[in-house]
Amino acid sequence: MTTADTITMRRPDDWHLHLRDGAMLKTVIDDTARHFGRAIVMPNLVPPVVTMAQAIAYRRRIEAALPDGSGFTPLMTLYLTENTDPSDVAEAHKSGTATAVKLYPAGATTNSDSGVRDFEAVRGVLEVMEKIGMPLLIHGEVTDPDIDIFDREAVFIHRHLTRLLREHPGLRIVLEHTTTEDAVAFVESAGGRVGATITPHHLVINRNALFAGGIRPHHFCLPIAKREKHRLALRKAATSGNPAFFLGTDSAPHTIHTKEAECGCAGIYNAPTAMATYTQVFEDEGALDRLEAFTSINGPKFYGLPANESEITLVRDTPAEEADRTLPDSAGVRVFQPSNLNWRVADS
Which sign, positive or negative, has the C-alpha torsion 286, 230, 198, 86? Predict the structure, then answer.
């Protein structure tokens, strides 16, 4: 139900989320659990979640950190390495332990050093995944030092993704946190074979936000924000109604002191403000009637899961500015806070 001042719809899911572990996990989990029914949880811990046994253990830690009475469901992923056992992947999928496998090109982002350097080395895993229908989630960037950081997504698509589709025609792929008009065009041309998540921050900032009056480390993420033309292409794709595009926040908490460091971490923590941000974008684009599909329908459909039965309500209101989250050792986590938001999640 949508009125001028309220929107009630099926509860959304987050198809790309970082929860970390330990004290950080316990600090941030409630921000996601309050708004989302399920989330695809990234496996790039230290050490990474590579095996079924590690995924089971991590899921138990997440469930133990949830507030009492929470209906939130973590959907686990396995971190693809060149030593990943195809039979373990198959068993993790069959048992319902792992929903998907995540491919990080080695060195592409936070805790990705164990990722893939040689795509031939993981062919056996990809063949098994293709056979059993298990999705491959891709951080789509090359890591060559001679490739401009703003071009790395487009080069990955040309160099690797087109080949993956050609050689594995039955493999289900999600190109995560798409950031360019190149990626949008590729997904649109794939005829439903490729899904794509779009973050709230890539919809509202471009690369100028990194340098507004000085270096802005809390706007630094990977893939990095691109030119304005790419931001506009993402907004058009998200609000288009095309079912290949769906919500994935890539919410990635880091402590303030590790962001504001000589070599600052990549990642934006947006879980508390994500739904308000998406809603504002859809209103600005005159597409509130398509919001529920993007946030709550397209993702489950791609993954072959039912949409949530529970609902969420957003109300037109100027939301209070979100305070930094604080870990037990008093370290802070800065919340992404876009300006000019006119919506908030009710009762949150």
Answer: positive
Looking at residue 1, what is its pLDDT?
A: 67
Instruction: Give 167-215 pLDDT, tens digit per residue.
Output: 999 999 999 999 999 999 999 999 999 999 999 999 999 999 999 999 9
Question: Is the sign of the CA dihedral 54, 58, 59, 64 positive or negative?
Answer: positive
User: CA 274 to CA 337: how far, in whole Å?
Assistant: 9
pLDDT digit string, tens, across residues 202-223:
999 999 999 999 999 999 999 9
Q: Has 21 been annotated as catalytic?
A: no
Cβ(176)–Cβ(226) below 8 Å: no
d(CA 143, CA 216): 23
Radius of gyration of the chain, Cα coordinates, nearest whole angstrom:
19
The H-or-E segment that residue 35 falls in is none
Q: Quote the mean pLDDT of the chain.
A: 96
- Tell whether omega for the bond before 338 is within 30 degrees of 0, i.e. cis: no
Q: Which two tokens stand for residue 92?
A: 């993790």
Catalytic residue among 88, 250, 284, 324: 250
CA atoms within 13 A on the CB side of 78: 32
What pLDDT score was predicted for residue 231? Answer: 98
d(CA 184, CA 231): 11
For residue 17, the 8-state DSSP code is E
Handedness of CA 152, 18, 49, 47 (dihedral sign): positive
Q: Is the pLDDT of residue 5 over 80?
A: yes
